[in-house]
Amino acid sequence: MTKYGSEQILPYNNEEHKATQVRRMFDSIAGTYDQLNHMLSLGIDKIWRRKGIAFLRPFSPASILDIATGTGDLAISMYRRLKADRIVGADISEGMMEVGRQKVAEAGLSGHITFEYQDCTALTYPDNSFDAVTAAFGVRNFENIEQGIAEMYRVLKPGGHLMILELSSPVHFPMKQLYNIYSKVVIPTVGRLLSKEHT
């Protein structure tokens, strides 16, 4: 088990980097990720994204970097609601981003949203590059959470805004016990089933 800041992360195995395992997993489920994500969150992920975008709206960011963009759901929603001049979706999974590129093309937004391979712990962008940096449900997958967040701050312009959506665990009975069953049994089982169906 590896500890970063206050987070304890249990990788799939100790023989290769967590980022490598995360990339392989998301590449394998890219085609079913949106369906899986919306189903397992009971659609609540859409509500959280809308609230995150509402946080950014008063600041009217013209340039946005969406870290761990996956299939681009947040990037697409941000363009539609914020009309930013430039949105870059960054991820380590080419499989996920390819799905995102198709979604963006179908929506006619290819001129506004682009996708780029980026290691969140070593972004290639210069300092002070973006008005806003976002991450929706991806920070937990960072190889090094502290380094990843430091990089997000580095590429933010002075006065820019960082918006992170992430899951937390209930601490009170009975929600704590129900959540543990859901997260440790239901989610992995469904994920494995869908992944096997599309490999």
How would you describe the overall organization of this protein?
The protein has 199 residues and is of the alpha/beta class. The protein contains 7 helices and 7 strands. The chain has helices spanning 18-29, 33-40, 44-56, 73-82, 94-106, 145-154, 175-197; strands at 2-4, 7-9, 63-67, 86-91, 113-117, 130-136, 156-165. The strands form 2 sheets. The chain has a 5-stranded parallel beta sheet with strand order 5-4-3-6-7. Strands 1-2 form a two-stranded antiparallel ribbon. Helix 3 packs across helix 4. It is globular, with a radius of gyration of 17 Å. The two termini are 28 Å apart. Mean pLDDT is 81; it is low at 1-12.
Using brief descriptors, characterize the structure shown.
about 200 residues, alpha/beta, two-stranded antiparallel ribbon, 7 strands, five-stranded parallel β-sheet, about 45% helix, 7 helices
Rg: 17 Å
Percent strand: 15-25%
Main sheet strand line-up: 5-4-3-6-7
Helical fraction equals 40-55%
Distance between the termini: 28 Å
The geometry reads as: globular
- In quaternary terms, these chains amount to single chain
Briefly note the structural class of the backbone: alpha/beta
* Chain-averaged pLDDT: 81
Biggest beta-sheet profile:
5 strands, parallel
Q: How many helix segments?
A: 7
Which blocks of ≥5 consecutive residues have pLDDT under 50? 1-12
**What's the order of the H and E elements?**
EEHHHEHEHEEHEH
Quantity of strands, as a count: 7
Task: List the SSEs and their pairings.
Elements: E1 2-4, E2 7-9, H1 18-29, H2 33-40, H3 44-56, E3 63-67, H4 73-82, E4 86-91, H5 94-106, E5 113-117, E6 130-136, H6 145-154, E7 156-165, H7 175-197
Parallel strand pairs: 3-4, 3-6, 4-5, 6-7
Antiparallel strand pairs: 1-2
Helix pairs in contact: 3-4
